[in-house]
Amino acid sequence: MSDAILRVRGLSKRFDSEEVLRGVSFEVHKGDAKVFIGPSGTGKSTLLRCLNRLVEPDSGQVWLGSEEITHASDIDGVRRRMGMVFQNFYLFDHLTALGNVEIGLTKVLKMPKRQAKDFAMSELARVGMDRFADKYPAELSGGQAQRVSIARSLAMNPEIMLFDEPTSALDPELTGEVLEVMRNLASGGMTMLVVSHEMEFVYSVASEVLFMEGGVIVERGTPGQIRDENASAESRDPGAPSAQNPSKSFARTRAFLRRLDG
Fold it and tell me: What is the predicted pLDDT for the residue at 151?
């Protein structure tokens, strides 16, 4: 039995005639920070949404620990164990920053009000937002709102955090404060799956970079291997159609990164 905290096997998803995911497989161990990169429309966001059942996969299996969650009836329970931060913040406009973090603790976890407030404040402090606890979303910058969103997910004490391009809706000057929070989480041992094209962040945080193209993982390796022109691809998804003729280097990943730089 694998000691992986998350196992994904043959995950596939089609929207009408478009096959968005084609048999994606990988494992995640405790403390991993795996980052998915690749062109738009290659299934990265759909993959994360399939993991926590916001989107139902057509086939394949996902295990969280020893539990097979692909067909689990308790979807809310799955989502409590797997926190997700989106491109947009999805905060409740009528609640303060504190209220946005408290609400899941009182409504979902049934935590007493006083305990929920104290715990919510500690999570806001964790992301540097305790000074803004009484502010409403309209009074916050985009970076501040995203940090509240992260605190809200962390408050549920998830086993894994999923980040779907969490800085893509932010101005460049606000991106750094969110990435710094994520760096701190990674250095503290939080298990993370991230979709991001902030390559300086990726190189500094990722335990593994997975390049997706055409709905499959076509190249994967450490940041050091991707940057080393002489490195060979560490591993591939052996069942993926695009992996039938594997290259000996990270050529496709590097070509994509050159397009980003250009």
Answer: 97
